[in-house]
Amino acid sequence: MITSCPLSPSIRGSKARSAEVSNTKHFSVQSFITTIVLLVGLLCCKHVGDGHLLELERLLHTRIMAKHDMRMIEHQQRTRLTRTQNIARGHRDRVVNLMHRLDIAPRQYNERKERKQAQIDRLQAQIQHLGVSDITVSVEYFPSSMSRPSNPFAQGFRRVDLEGGAQHVVSTVAAWKAQAVQMSMTMDIIFFSAACCVVAASVISTIEVFLTEIAPFDLVDCIYLLLFGTKMMFLDAPVRFKGIVEAQAFIVKYFAFLTRFTGRGIWYIFLGTMTFATLWDNQIWYLGAVLLGFYVFLIGVFATVMGAMKSRKLDRVRQQIRRQNANSEQMFNAYARSSPQEGMTAEEFDLLSGQVAGISFRPDELTFVLNALCNEGRLGITQRDFCGWIAGPAILL
Length: 397
Known about the structure:
By secondary structure, the protein is mainly alpha-helical. The chain has a domain at about 165-390. It contains 10 helices and no strands. α3 packs antiparallel against α5. It is a multi-pass membrane protein. InterPro entries: Golgi_TVP15.
């Protein structure tokens, strides 16, 4: 029987160490292989992940571009829809305007026909008063369905028979227009003479007070009267020099009430009383105080009364338009044909007042009407000014 010999401790220790070394080497190789495999797997995953990321970025970019294209298409569609709505709204407004014109014609045809006939009767009476007997004046009315008036609110045309000596009618009307222009020039000269009276009285009183006594308050009063009179003399000057025109533009810009007939009359009433008080209270010239003061005062009273009458005449046109319940914007567009952007001219306003209210204005009256209705120094009545005049209170000329 064979028995194993017990190993010595040194031999057993060496075998254990060799086993540990072999196990360690086997573990190191296995770890290395595992690490290599993991690295290769990570590299593969990274490559695949980069591909997926690129594909995802392309998809996102495609989606963004698609949304942008959709927004552009929606914007274009909204723009086309807005343009179509504006065109439809414009057609609708034109249809409403046409319906309003067709509705207002039958209601006012008879009234305007009677008014025109009354005007012709007055004209015939004036012609007979002039002593002309071989003139025939006739008026023919054409319904709106048979003819197209140049003005949509007009219900007919007036035709004057030029046979049988009716040329005298034309010359008579031209003479009346020339008389109106001459009257306007006469009023300007009258106002200018009143301003000269104020300036003369102020110069005399200023020199007298300055040389004879020490009265600063009276001197200031005289200087103020001189300034006021000089301002009115520049405003009513019949000449048109460059300096005078510039002074008139300055006065019209900052003292607009003086351009109106009523305002000018009230101002001359004030200047007349001030002229009388300056010459009379300072014991300078009693006769001049009476003559100059009362002359300027009476001119002011006359201008105020005339301005009130002209204002009432203009207000009658406004009341007649309001009684018809007509659309003021449509009426403005119907009459302001020459230049709607610049506004309604004086001739167009006179045509409107004659056809709507049967009231006509002279050229000098139209000047005051435009001064009262136009804002910001314009040469025509804008739609805003016209609608504000219709809807607002009465205006003093």
